């Protein structure tokens, strides 16, 4: 169901799936960016004036950061380990980030093509601290597109 005119989606309701499997407990997603190079064609026109034309270039592959609270779930660890050992056939995954409306219906999907983990970072450990420990997985993919 589309949102009424004047309303927009909110950032607190989203989901993540890879190869049809829902990834749970993600607290933050950043780096959703669709970008392409710009090619400048510099030339002189028929009247002798200098002209710069901008043309679309190659798409750039994004890097998306997934953050979740540290838990006993080892899915990120296994994914990282498989990529470190070069098992790219098993590591490259198709996925999507889904934004939901207030009623829980999908509002928009961002499709990831051939995504794989680039790095895993464990949050800061500090004696006496009461904040939640997190792990951040940076995923790179070949393409990000709106479905």
Can you describe this structure?
There is one protein chain. The protein has helices at 75-84, 88-91, and strands spanning 14-18, 21-23, 26-30, 35-44, 50-60, 63-69, 93-100, 106-122, 134-140, 143-146. The protein has 147 residues and is mostly beta strands. Strands 1, 2, 3, 6, 7, 8, 9 and 10 form an 8-stranded antiparallel β-sheet that branches. The chain has a two-stranded antiparallel sheet with strand order 4-5. A hairpin with a 5-residue loop joins strand 7 (93-100) and strand 8 (106-122).
Main features:
147 residues, mainly beta, 2 helices, 10 strands
Helix content: under 10%
Report the biggest beta sheet as strand number plus sense, adding barrel if it closes. 8 strands, antiparallel
Alpha-beta content class: mainly beta
| Total count of helical runs of at least 4 residues | 2
- Overall geometry: elongated
Q: What sequence of helices (H) and strands (E) makes up the elements? A: EEEEEEHHEEEE
């Amino acid at each position: 169901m589309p949102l009424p005119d004047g309303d927009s989606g909110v950032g607190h309701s989203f989901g993540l799936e890879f190869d049809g499997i829902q990834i749970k407990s993600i607290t933050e997603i950043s780096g959703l960016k669709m970008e392409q190079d710009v090619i400048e064609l510099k030339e002189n026109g028929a009247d002798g004036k200098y002209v710069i034309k901008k043309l679309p270039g190659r798409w750039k592959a994004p890097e998306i950061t997934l953050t979740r609270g540290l838990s006993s779930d080892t899915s990120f660890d296994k994914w990282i380990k498989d990529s470190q050992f070069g098992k790219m056939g098993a590591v490259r995954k198709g996925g999507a980030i889904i934004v939901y409306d207030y009623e829980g219906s999908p509002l928009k999907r961002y499709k990831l093509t051939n995504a794989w983990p680039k790095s895993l970072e464990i949050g800061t450990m500090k004696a006496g601290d009461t904040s939640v420990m997190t792990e951040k997985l940076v995923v790179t993919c070949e393409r990000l597109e709106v479905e």
